[in-house]
Amino acid sequence: MLQPSTAGFRRLLPLLLPHRRALLAGGLSMLVFVACWPLLAWLAGQLIPAIGAGDLPRVLRVVGLALMVFMVQKLAQFGQDSFLAEPALLVSQDLRRQLFARLQRLEFGALEKLSAGDLTYRLTEDADRVGEVIYKTIQDTTPSALQLVVVFGYMVWLDWPLSLATLVLAPLVAVLVSLFGARVMRAAERSQKQVSELAGLLGEAIGGLPLVRAFAAEPWLQQRFDNEIDLHRRARYRTQRLLALQYPVVGFLEAAGILAVLLIGAARIQAGGLNAQGFSSYVTALLMLIDPISHLTTNFNEFQQGQASLRRLRQIEHEPVEAPDRVDAEPLGQVAGQLELRGVRFGYDPDQPVLRGLDLTVDAGQVVALVGPSGAGKSTLFSLLLRFNTAQHGQVLLDGHDLAALRARELRRAVALVPQQSSVFSGTVAEAIAFGRSASLEQIREAARLANADGFIEALPEGYDSRIEERGSNFSGGQLQRLAIARAVLGNPAVLLLDEATSALDAEAEAAVQRGLQQAMAGRTVLVIAHRLATVQTADRIVVLEAGQIVEQGSHSTLMASGGRYRELCERQLIQLGADA
Ligand code: ADP
After folding, report:
1. Relative to the CA of 373, which ligand 1 atom is closest?
2. Are 97 and 123 in contact (CB under 8 A)?
3. Which of 14, 459, 507, 524 has the most CB atoms around it within 10 Å of its CB?
4. Do residues 395 and 402 touch, judged by C-beta distance below 8 A?
5. CA 272 to CA 217: how far, in whole Å?
6. pLDDT tens across 11-61, in order?
7. Residue 436 CB: number of other CB atoms within 10 A?
8. Whose CA is nearest to atom 11 of ligand 1?
9. CB 16 within 8 A of CB 87
10. From the CA of 549, how far away is ligand 1's center (Å)?
């Protein structure tokens, strides 16, 4: 499992750097937007006494001015929101891209430890949440905080003693409100717990109904159920009552707070520290604080959730990635396909070797079948040949080059894998065969022909442009296997690693796949993890692997005659007779 790590949104700031211009434009719009608030509060201060005095021309002047300020402010808000949206979205896109790129480079060991579901959740839900927080922080939290500071600053400028009183009163009201909120939350949690207990009992009861009936225990179960729904109702009622109380209480507290400010304001006016206009502006400004405060509190909660998500995303960065190629990596050039293992020892945990001193030479163009019980280390050997893992002792060589000294991409172009599970990506048939490599349609057709897949592909209504659904669900197992073979031979690799499927196909499909394999294998070095008699019989050599060691080698007939482990494997039917035997 991934370990927790410390990470904060601050570390995302460099991602914003390339978007300086949009940020600057958005920031300027934001300043205009925020500066309009105290202006509006000031205008309100002019307006209210003018209305009180019935001075219509003055009222009209002020209303006209306010209308203009509102227009400027809304325009600035549009500028702010539209300029800032892009960098905010780009940052979350950059974050996703970086993480996915990292994921593609992770060490195989690390990758296998992570569950696909967990990673998918992280890269979708968590990334969404982080993106949302970035967006909100730039576009909502920042202007709200600025509004709070500017408007309160204006209030202090208007009358600092009254502001001091507000500063004492406001947190008092806030604390009382949040105390109440905490009680509601606890009650809601209790009620939630009761719901899950009810669900638990229901699950148990429904599964056990026949048993209950068999024991004539219906009254007993009904009693338990009645008790449970009674508890459930009570818990719900407690929450409802608290909620019913919450609105009046909170409303009263807020009203009391505002009344207190009014009272102090009146005292200030009497003391001559403030006039009626100033006071009207003051109260208007006070009302202007409510909105940003509520935005800031909601955003703060989301920010905390976002931080947890960001931490989960950042954990991917702490997983080890595949070692880069050596700086003095040797170019591979033309590959003949000779493979050699020299005293290869390897364990996923170095203290528990899985391959224990393997020596094996496969000449270019030879076909070697690997057989052995499950867990013998056959797939592990493949992973070393593709340099997904590296031996702790000994060497793996291709045409005399130590794999460790080659460039991974060149190696993997020369050594192609046909996996046991023929997984293809969704897209067109041609895309599935090309698999990201640039190849002409001619080359794709040739690969399909070798894999004996050209027939069925051309019979499809759209031929090579036919769509493959996710997980290849609209193709048969045999067709997918042949597509996987075509994909492997497309780059004309010198070495083919074949992991034969264990699940049997019907005779016809099996024969088609076998023909594709035979054609694809011609002229290449082939290592095949074999489960079929047809395969081992045509191999130049059979290598029996057991507990990470080679225990027997030879042809099918000599190994059968010698009556060793191979014969035993055949008799225990670990080698299937296949459809054509
Ligand atoms: P085979 O292909 O012959 O069935 P494997 O090469 O898959 O055998 O496995 C050999 C041994 O290595 C088994 O004991 C298996 O549990 C272990 N093993 C395989 N893959 C891993 C891995 N990624 N991490 C740890 N142990 C592994």
Report:
1. 3
2. no
3. 524
4. yes
5. 82
6. 778 888 888 999 999 999 999 999 999 999 999 999 988 888 899 999 999
7. 7
8. 375
9. yes
10. 14
Q: Choose the residue to mutate in 352, 354, 386, 551 for probing ligand 1, maximizing ligand atoms within 8 Å of C-beta.
A: 354
Q: What are phi and psi of 67, to 5 degrees?
A: -60, -40
Residues in contact with ligand 1 by the CB-under-6-Å rule are: 112, 348, 354, 372, 374-380
Written as one string, the DSSP assignment of 257-324 is: HHHHHHHHHHHHHHHTS--HHHHHHHHHHHHHHHHHHHHHHHHHHHHHHHHHHHHHHHHHTTSPBPPP
Question: pLDDT tens for residues 51-88?
Answer: 888 999 999 999 999 999 999 999 999 999 999 988 88
Rg of the chain taking only CA atoms, in angstroms? 37
Q: Are 126 and 120 in contact (CB under 8 A)?
A: no
Q: How far apart are CA 204 and CA 207, in angstroms?
A: 5
How much is the pLDDT for 307? 83
Residue nearest to atom 13 of ligand 1 (CA): 375
Domains of the chain: 11-317 (1.20.1560.10), 339-580 (3.40.50.300)
Strands (E), 478-580: 495-499, 525-529, 541-546, 549-554
Q: Is 508 helix (H, G, I), strand (E, B) or coil?
A: helix
Q: The pTM is what? A: 0.71
Q: Which residue has the tokens 């409802």?
A: 240
Contact status, residue 278 vs residue 46, Cβ threshold 8 Å: no
Q: Which residues pair with 529 in a beta bridge?
A: 370, 499
The tokens for 562 are 């010698």
Cβ(108)–Cβ(319) below 8 Å: no
Tokens 């109440």 correspond to 180
Mutate to test the pocket of ligand 1, among 108, 348, 382, 528 (most ligand atoms within 8 A of CB): 348
- Which SS3 state, helix, strand or coil, does residue 217 take? coil
DSSP state of 472: G
Question: Alpha-carbon distance 523 to 540, whole Å?
Answer: 13
- Torsion angle of C-alpha atoms 168, 173, 179, 185, degrees rounded to 10: -140
Task: Give the residue, by CA position, lying nearest to ligand 1 atom 16.
Answer: 375
Left (φ > 0), alpha (ψ -120 to 50) or beta: where does 157 sit? alpha
379 C-alpha to center of ligand 1: Å? 7
